[in-house]
Amino acid sequence: MHACIRAVRFAFLPVLLFSVTALSAQQPGQLPTPKEGDYVSHDFHFKSGETLPELRMHYATFGRGQLLDVTRYYVILADNIGHGKSSKPSDGMHAHFPQYDYDDMVRSQHELLEKGLGVNHLRLILGTSMGCMHSWVWGETYPNFMDALMPLACQPVQIAGRNRVWRKMVIDGVRDDSDWKNGEYTAQPRAALSIAAAMFYVAGSAPLQIQKSLPTRDAADAASEDYVKRFVASHDANDLLYAVNASRNYDPSPQLEKISVPVMFVNSADDFINPPELGIAEREIQRVNKGRLVLIPISEQTHGHGTHTWAAVWQQYLKELLEASQH
Hints:
Helix 2 (130-141) links the parallel strand 5 (121-128) and strand 6 (149-152). By secondary structure, the chain is an alpha/beta fold. The chain folds into two domains: 6-156 and 251-325, Alpha/Beta hydrolase fold, catalytic domain (Rossmann fold, 3-Layer(aba) Sandwich), CATH 3.40.50; 162-245, Orthogonal Bundle (Rna Polymerase Sigma Factor, Chain: A). The chain contains nine helices and eight strands. It has an eight-stranded mixed beta sheet, with helices on both faces. It is globular, with a radius of gyration of 19 Å.
């Protein structure tokens, strides 16, 4: 039996470039050097029925396990399956890599914690975007593993409507590109990645901020061209396809009542991906016993879906959650 080490875990969607500096009041230059490592899960079984002889989970940790400031908490940041330095299609299996989903990703995170790091309880799970959705899965699958949950920028329901439409456009853009070659390309399929870049750029933007920063047609054209160029240069089509497709069967809504710990659910009003006018968050949070929803109004400080990376906007709610859930 592992000792009960209190830790904090954060889940990210690396393609949206979420930064660890958003999780602490400290400035980037003050952050200590993280300790990085790899945990290998042997004979990992995916929900699809596929297996991998060895699934590598890469992680970085801050702190030494004593007492979201890294001098007080042991902060764990895991590269999810398909992302970063963890096992992913571009490692060599290409489109033969197992079709992982969010349940597989959370289960691999849980194994990393218990078997790889010897952590059997978390002080907090804070997740943004994809990590936000993982937070709901964590709360239902392992309801006693944490003291609190803080999901930011998502919905606790099946991905449908416009959210599914733009994701399917990205998926189809890869699969329909003749240069994809069923995943066995020797050069990245540029058209597919360009389509994906355009969709991510729009989905992640905030009208107020982008209008202010790109006030002319020429500025907007130059910015979009630059974004596409950088996106294409830094992404692998198979990895991207798998990452977007991993949300295909996500739907925590049937089991929200299983979540027993305090939940601070935070969305922003200018989020293209999770628009507040749908009323979904307000409806579903009522089914969470200790749940609270915060909708951050549009302001000069919000940045659309990316508002979750600006700690100044939501850190007061994190403080309230930690105080409310302390023992």
